[in-house]
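ARCHIVE CARD
Drawer: 12
Card no.: 0347
Subject: one protein chain, sequence and derived structure
Cross-reference: see card 0346
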Amino acid sequence: MGSRDIVDIETRPWKVGFDDPVLEAGGIDRPLLRRGHGFRYDGLDIDKKELCHTIYDHFWVQSIERSVPENYQMIISMTLLEHVQDNAASAKSMFEALLPSGTTHHYVPSRWHPYALILRLVGPKLQKRLITSLRSEQEASVSGYPTFFNQCTSRAMRLTFERAGFEEVDIRPFYRANGYFAFFVPAFVLLTAFETLCRYVDWWYFASGFIISGRKPECR
């Protein structure tokens, strides 16, 4: 099960309402939801592909760090925020783009997981080559962006969201990133044991990632 499946299963309580405008940031041509189900579904990414204008009702080509041109009832993303250099700016722009009582939900890889540590150690220039060797060609084609892991711990991201103005900030950790090392059995076994231990003793710090959710107050 991949991280996209985790978000799809675990965050179904999103409960998108009829006519609720929804923005997915960073989904490009691999959306979490489907348009045409009674709500407006827009996309945002720094890149654009041919399919974007058929997948989404409207597609914005820009960074989530910049002010979003429209307002939404819900903003979601999947493995996006680790690629953003300034997540304080991201949290602020999402907060400002939400309608009163709107919610935001994001799956964020943790900066202290072994896979993230390796990416950070090799640096941006070698990251794409490493990702290509660890993932399938299709996955690597959408994962070759530099990773910064700015504020990408549960504690730091919670503070970032709260400082941006979000309330009811909720975080759920996940420990399922051993698939990155499936090509090398010893590493796969060691990482599986490590993730099992982390889950058992509740070491959120070393989780493979976490879902963070927050709500914009009605009065803002």
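Annotation on reverse: The first strand starts at residue 22 and ends at 25. The CA atoms of residues 133 and 173 lie 26 Å apart.
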